[in-house]
Amino acid sequence: MLNRRHIRVKVMQSIYAMHQTSSDSMEKEEKFLFQSIENIRDLYLLMVSALVELRKAEDDFIEKSQKKHLATDAERNPNKKFVNNLVLTLLDESNPLSIAIADRRINNWQLNDDYILLLLEDIKETELYKNYMQTRTNTWEEDRDFVHALFTEVVAPNEKLYEYLEDNKLTWVDDIPVVNTLISKQLQNLTPEGRDSFSVPRLYKDIDDKDFVRDLFRKTVLNEVELAKEFIDKTPNWDTERIAEIDSIILKMAICEFLKFPSIPVKVTINEYLEIAKEYSTPKSSIFINGILDNLVKDYQAGNKLVKTGRGLM
Description:
Blueprint: H1 4-21, H2 26-66, H3 73-76, H4 86-93, H5 95-103, H6 108-111, H7 113-124, H8 127-132, H9 140-155, H10 159-168, H11 176-188, H12 207-222, H13 224-232, H14 245-260, H15 266-280, H16 285-302
Helix pairs in contact: 1-2, 1-12, 1-14, 2-4, 2-7, 2-11, 9-11, 12-14, 13-14, 14-15, 14-16, 15-16
Pfam family, one: NusB
Organism: Flavobacterium akiainvivens
GO cellular component, one term: cytosol
């Protein structure tokens, strides 16, 4: 679920939070860092379960409409294509998904069903839904394409839903694009192979990624003074107070990877942090950071200070 770039972002944000609160408790901040990463799993389950709850809400609406004393012909014989959608049904019956939701106690939509009802109203107003409901038959390909489009075009960008997620956990703001992209790919590639065909991805690709979170955080925080000295001399026209806080943290993390993570290629480190700078810092930050890192790499190589193991790591 997590890629290395997003791990770097989470570590950067935790170090920034430490600076802003003047916290000196690395243990406390590291615990918060790992908790914020664990919360990404909850966000994933919350977004997928929204699709399940939308189907249930429509099913409940149809059932209540049929029981009306003066039900119309349309209400007595409703089009159940949405409720019978093969992908939504598969998600509802998915054992891995149900177990994960129960384990993580994801009950947000039961406690806040008004968001699901509002979202369902918005869905029914779309041309996507109206075109889909023109027939009453369900096929796997059409149902899969519809749910994929429904999620990417209606559910994921829904403002009310975004506001709820932002209010629920502030750390989710930067996680939402990562989670929604993953779910979109899963829906697009879903096959009708039974109740277990929808798998809940692991949070970390492997144990190395989880270790990377801890090691990058600790090695950067514990060596901040020394890491800062590495680039201060390379910025003669800038004093430390003029360098943006985020830029300073990015530089320290990148230099930390240069010197203390021998298995990570130099080019990977530079490219990753330049992309992070473009997204999270000032418009000119990536140029500034790139210039410093390039000069540092040349100095390290000249002084045999840059030790990388494995092929193609320079």
